[in-house]
């Protein structure tokens, strides 16, 4: 969790944000894309905007790049309102989802495009292009045209082009969306490395929660033009503030019930005979959430604050782990995940087996919205 | 795309003004009562009446219509065959020459096509008249038809024909029951194209017509050489009206067909 | 069945396209005296191929080089076609650009408005300008009425009227290919250029112009090629001193009845067209390969 030596400017009330949204709204006719949004992003952050398509994350990014202007509110970069600054005058560069490589220019000329616009002299420009090409490991592809290189290489050219001007802020719009899974995972780590070495602030838009969790220092989960939660990845996962966030990030069991206070903890009555415990305070109708991997499965009643009995109705084999779907007598189905440390043939439980599920009261979460 | 800028709106407005103003002026002045075409002398339909009494124009119009109907139909048949030969014919002797002869007339200046056909008709001693115009028009419009139809043929899924053959249809049945219905829109637009090309042609008809036949464009040409006349204004207005109505109707029909298809697909998806 | 499908159009085109063309070639190479009407048979049945070839005569072509009317007509055709193409580009590009940037819902209608004049009579579209450009025409009336000029402009029967006529009738050929290439340009490319520091105008020059090159070249050839051989426009709108090769050919044939010279003019006109046609084909091929 958070410790004092780690990078966390958002915990420091005196830190100056690089970007600040103040009550920003954006409407397209009747449709509200961004709704009265406040947000601060700090220098050197790797910030992820996460949400399903249509949640407003792309609009937010395009407002930073200057392709959309807010209907209301203001956007500050380094304390300056940038509403009237056109895209070509902003210290911001963007890596486009489609890469938007100029098909009539070679790889080198694509990368040098922005440098030429700011009038950098040829020698310095060449040196800079070489530098960023090395950084993204593009090797000797400089003279090729975009259609003569692979998808992964194109992604690197697009990244190099947006990095070349050493912007204060780099925007990445679904940068890895077009790559296959394996290449995507490799590239995520390269992106993080580049972000660290250049010290640039990155804002990434993605709908892939794993990607956001991997690369980002903070994640903003968006829904219908609003930010539901902004926090570090592990907090978003471990301490979601709403059913929406818990459900959007990772796999989760969600059980509706009524909460009542019990000393320092909470008891949630989910069904007759099923009462679950968690930490914190709550009253009234709530949703009880628990992650499958936090649930242990056993043949005997476990010595745990939460223990329920049920029947295995389905087993999802995922290679590294298996997910057991266990039906409780109340009709609720609870998922429990276990790591497959042994071969499948040797697994302890099978379909129709009666099993016990157990978890600690720190694993359970009570969500009031 | 961003909302249209003033520049785009202006260039479109000026562009369409350039394209349509001359024709609009023509239409307005066709209702001018006076003989002086550039001086407005009140609304009148007298030139339309005069036009309808002009036997020479009516004869020429009748000739043109017959030539266009016959030649566009012949051109469609030959053009579809030529498209089939090009796209489905496989290899045959002189294929390059054949495709060259399909594409060459599209870029050939009309004066050359007209001259060469006339010299041919004289060489073989053929009497010139409606027949020779039909032959000439068929020749160049079949090339247009074949280009339109072969584009459609090249883009359609070959396996549909193979499925028909697989299910026991003969090649001729396959063509009639599968290929033709699919390329029908292209065939129809090919026919329309051939028809308007024929209606419109002045140069080739002038070379190949001989003294016995005069088409409407030839008649118009010989009268407008001397300047603007109110009858020609009226005639032009009629022609523009006919064409515009035709184009609007056909585009409405195709739009409706597309809409119907989209609706059916939506319904089917439910 | 397959044989008939190939043979019928093939023979038709051989008989009515290739053979007439060979006749033109043959007559252009024959003695003027033999080919003036009443027209002699091209070759008699008794004459062998050798005789047929030996009777070739390049006299007509020599005649074309001697009389500078023909030289001037060729050069003037090239000049008129070139200037008209340039003007058509200047007018057509902004229209194509406006079309490509128009709201999607409007585009089919706007596109139909560009194509609609194609279907209306070419002759009538040219004719419409006679009334506009004449000394007592509508344009002069308007300009005089506005006090912009004090004496009517002489536009009709000059080369300018021919430029206007060619641009007017062929500008859709310019608009459509340019519109097609502009429509393929990803809007994100423009945003990328702006993001990297271009102003909108700079982004236009550095991205839109180079990427629409193929359409511009295609459109230019589509105007230039038919403009060279144009006959109707110069004869209706041009003056007696407007020289265009199509008009010369027509006059040689119908007025002077000099068939061999008319044929020779036709052969050279075609030679003149080969270069642009080949270049045009290459441009089209490259575009297809790129797509």
Any overview of this molecule?
The complex is a heterotrimer of chains A (369), B (270) and C (291). In chain A, helix 2 crosses helix 3, helix 2 (107-117) packs parallel to helix 4 and helix 3 (122-135) packs across helix 4 (151-164). Chain A has helices at residues 57-65, 107-117, 122-135, 151-164, 181-198, 209-215, 233-238, 243-248; strands at 19-28, 31-41, 46-50, 72-77, 80-81, 92-95, 169-173, 201-206, 218-223, 226-231, 253-262, 265-271, 274-279, 284-290, 296-298, 306-317, 321-327, 333-339, 354-359, 365-367. Chain A is an alpha+beta fold and 369 residues long. In chain A, the strands form four sheets. A six-stranded mixed beta sheet of chain A has the order 6-7-8-3-9-10, with helices on both faces. In chain A, strands 13-12-11-14-20 form a five-stranded antiparallel beta sheet. Chain A is globular and about 75 Å long. In chain A, strand 7, helix 5 and strand 8 form a beta-alpha-beta unit. Chain A contains eight helices and 20 strands. In chain B, 79% of the residues lie in helices and 0% in strands. The relative contact order of chain B is 0.13. In chain B, helix 2 (46-53) packs across helix 11 and helix 6 packs across helix 8. Chain B contains eleven helices and no strands. Chain C is mostly helical and 291 residues long. Chain C has one domain (74-290): Orthogonal Bundle (MetI-like fold). Chain C contains 15 helices and no strands. Chain C has helices spanning 2-28, 32-35, 49-54, 59-66, 68-101, 107-119, 122-133, 138-146, 159-184, 187-195, 200-211, 213-228, 232-237, 245-255, 259-290. Chain C is globular and about 70 Å long. Mean pLDDT of chain C is 86; it is low at 38-49. Classes of the chains: A alpha+beta (369), B mainly alpha (270), C mainly alpha (291). Chains B and C meet through helix 1, helix 3, helix 4, helix 5 and helix 6 of B and helix 1, helix 5, helix 6, helix 7 and helix 9 of C.
